[in-house]
Specification:
Layout (H helix, E strand, L loop, with lengths): L2 H11 L9 H10 L6 E6 L3 E2 L2 E2 L3 E10 L5 E4 L14 E5 L1 H5 L2 E2 L21 E2 L2 H6 L5 E10 L2 E9 L6 E7 L6 H18 L7 E7 L3 H9 L7 E7 L8 E4 L7 H15 L5 E4 L8 H4 L8 E5 L21 H20 L2 E4 L13 H4 L6 H13 L2 E5 H8 L3 H13 L3 E3 L1
Parallel strand pairs: 7-8, 11-12, 11-13, 13-16, 14-15
Antiparallel strand pairs: 1-10, 2-3, 4-5, 4-9, 6-9, 10-12, 14-16, 17-18, 17-19
Helix pairs in contact: 1-5, 1-9, 5-9, 7-9, 11-13, 12-13
Length: 427
Amino acid sequence: MNGAEMMALAEELYPLCRSITGDGVRETLRTLGRWNPVEIVEVPTGSPACDWVVPREWNLREAWVKSSSGEKVVDLADSTLHVVGYSVPVHEKLSRAELDAHLHSIPEHPSWIPWRNSYYEEGWGFCLPHAQRAALPDEEYEVYIDASLEDGHLSYGELFLPGRRDEELLVSVHVCHPSLANDNLSGIAVSTAVASMLAGRDRTLGVRFLYVPGTIGSLAWLERNRERTGRVVGGLTLTCLGDAAGLTYKRSFAGDADVDRVAKAVLADRAAQGLGESELIDFYPYGYDERQYNAPAFRMPVGSLMRSRHGRFDEYHSSADDLSLLSVERLEEARDVVLEILGRLDRNRRYRSLAPEGEPQLGRRGIYRALGGGGDPAALQYAMLWLLQCGDGSHSLLDVAERSEMPFGQIADAADLLEEHALIDRS
């Protein structure tokens, strides 16, 4: 799945009216199902989700504010951001002052529409540009929100690509934001691309992709999959991957999990190749669903890959976070980085030397001749010596790469060659 296809997917999903529940989420998941066999899981209202409870399902059909002349001054049909998420149904006439108590805008960006929600507290409201709000005349207004808030389901998507072992990697994105391109759709598009490119590949570790409403969706998954959490040996949440900032990796709670070390190395390698600077930041208990996966009961080693951090770019949670923030090149770069991180985690394993009594004689095994096939023979030979020296079954390839200060790829290639010649075995 290339960058143009990722952009096309984001463009298709952009107009859908999504929230933490409802038909917009289902339509989003069905659209993703055209690319990969994503299973849609339905969790009934009232179901436990760790310390939370799945709320009632919300669906929005129509909403507007009309002036005294009958003109629609705010209309859901123009933007899904115009209505506060989870607004209860309403149809009444209000004065300008009464209406203003239900309006939301951004004074410092008077032409932008904010995104607001009221998931767990009943209310209603409209969002509009501040310039338009300030210009509304003092007259009577008719407000109408045709929405349902009733028992139903929370929907999330799940795709599992099995590996040869029980351990697995996790890739999670949130699917609950309406018409927000960077903070929502970029992560969905990149995850979809990664899943489609990994499908059918042979792998050691399984890879599980989750498409969940933020917070409540990951908690619902954790509630239903407690026995699986211990199998997750690394993972990523993906968000805000389409804007112009450099890549940022937020470490897992542990801070030194394999995924943290691999992400650090991948981003450092890219910087060394002149492919852009990046930033590493420590875990903090705010952000996206990595908070839930790293919770004390689970401690899943899940970091987060993003560009601009949430709340730290001007367009965040507003109509300015539109498709113009995304680019084919940045989506492709993010896709490639995710694939590299997952690929290194999949190749990372421990070996035991089958000739541990000193340095084995490589020449009589034809390994030196094997080195003549390309690359840097001296570096590959040095990598083999490091692997043999560390071959006590307790050192992973990542350990060896860090100890030797050699590229992970060279260490992994050397391991393949030594295994082929029966000098090491996977422990």
